[in-house]
TrEMBL record:
It catalyses: 2 superoxide + 2 H(+) = H2O2 + O2. Its cofactor is Mn(2+). It comes from Methanoculleus oceani. This is Superoxide dismutase. One of its GO terms (molecular function) is superoxide dismutase activity. Pfam families: Sod_Fe_C, Sod_Fe_N. The lineage of its organism: Archaea, Methanobacteriati, Methanobacteriota, Stenosarchaea group, Methanomicrobia.
Length: 205
């Protein structure tokens, strides 16, 4: 029986000031997204873990199917947001432009050009059903990058693929700035995409 305190999830700080991504993402939008929505997934995941721990300590039963589904959702939300914040940087100060280095070579090798990659990624993000994410992932079995469309936080994920870049297209990511105009938010994202971070993730595979 475990007796020592078990580690829980924590909300990471933003890697920049809340107003640093303006005018492309407002301070109000970014603050609500990080402080409220991301925090909710952290809180939810920890509550799910505590339910499991309590049941183990008391020797009681829990609905494993329902609880693990909820835990997967909350952990997925936390992990993807944790990847999302560093994927952006202030425009002109690490954000925007086009990728260079190994990432540029990888994109050219798979898509032929950055413009083709950008078009496919944009369509992926725009067409996620309901709430979800677009992601650039890497398959170590084929040594190829692949675009992944994630519904919610945990559906249609390619198992074991390493995620290099994510774009959150839940309405909570853009409703303050764009209301229901997802396309407008996706276009704004390209102005703050942090290719240095994506390149570093590629180098650390």
């Amino acid at each position: 029986m475990a007796t020592a305190p078990l580690k829980k999830y924590e909300l990471p700080p933003l890697p920049y000031a809340p107003d640093a991504l303006e005018p492309h993402i407002s301070k109000e939008q970014l603050s609500l997204h990080h402080d409220k929505h991301h925090q909710a997934y952290v809180t939810g995941a920890n509550a799910d873990l505590e339910k499991l721990e309590k049941a183990r300590q008391e020797g009681t039963e829990v609905d494993m199917k329902a609880l693990l589904k909820e835990l997967s959702f909350n952990i997925g939300g936390h992990v993807l947001h944790d990847l999302f914040w560093p994927t952006m940087a202030p425009a002109g100060k690490g954000g925007g432009g086009t990728p260079g280095g190994a990432l540029a070579d990888l994109i050219d090798g798979e898509w032929g050009s950055f413009d083709r990659f950008k078009a496919e990624f944009t369509k992926t993000a725009a067409s996620v059903e309901g709430s979800g994410w677009a992601a650039l992932a890497y398959c170590t079995m084929t040594d190829r990058p692949m675009i992944m469309q994630i519904e919610k936080h945990n559906n249609h994920v390619y198992p074991t693929f390493r995620i290099l870049m994510v774009l959150d297209v839940w309405e909570h990511a853009y409703y303050v700035d764009h209301r229901n105009n997802r396309a407008g938010f996706i276009e704004a994202f390209w102005n703050v995409a942090n290719w240095d971070t994506v390149n570093k993730r590629l180098e650390n595979l």
